[in-house]
Amino acid sequence: MKTIVLDLTGCKSLWDIHERIRKAFDFPEWYGKNWSAFWDLLWSECDADKVIIKGEYTIPEEYKEHLHTMHSILDKEIAFRKEYEKYNFAPFFYEVEN
């Protein structure tokens, strides 16, 4: 099982959040640092089975809505892999540790 640990502790901006995503998921330098780019690379480049998200509670209040967006995209990935499991996509899930 391949696990990605996304530690958001101390992120102060949306750019910080996306940079942590880029590094944790090993996305290329050209990662667009937006939610569309996250979805595109998540379903096309991510071979992890599990994502552990840490430090969400440290995100400034004005960026909390972006956490909801990130969770929605991760939920979409779960549904995508379930729908296409006949094509041997690995199961996928995530958990939040605070």
Question: What's the helix and strand layout?
Answer:
Elements: E1 3-7, H1 14-24, H2 35-45, E2 50-54, H3 64-83, E3 93-97
Parallel strand pairs: 1-2, 2-3
Helix pairs in contact: 2-3
The CATH class, by name, is Alpha Beta
Q: How big is the Rg?
A: 13 Å
Number of strands: 3
Reported CATH architecture: 2-Layer Sandwich
Mean pLDDT: 89
> Could you tell me the strand content as a percent range?
15-25%
The biggest sheet amounts to: 3 strands, parallel
- Helix and strand content put the structural class at alpha/beta
Uncertain spans? none
Shape: globular
Oligomer: single chain
Could you walk me through the main structural features you see in this protein, from its secondary elements to its overall organization?
- α2 runs parallel beside α3 (64-83).
- With 98 residues, the chain is of the alpha/beta class.
- It has helices at residues 14-24, 35-45, 64-83; strands spanning 3-7, 50-54, 93-97.
- The longest helix is centred in the C-terminal third of the chain and has 20 residues, at 64-83.
- The protein has one domain: Barstar-like (Barnase, Chain D, 2-Layer Sandwich).
- Helices cover 43% and strands 15% of the residues.
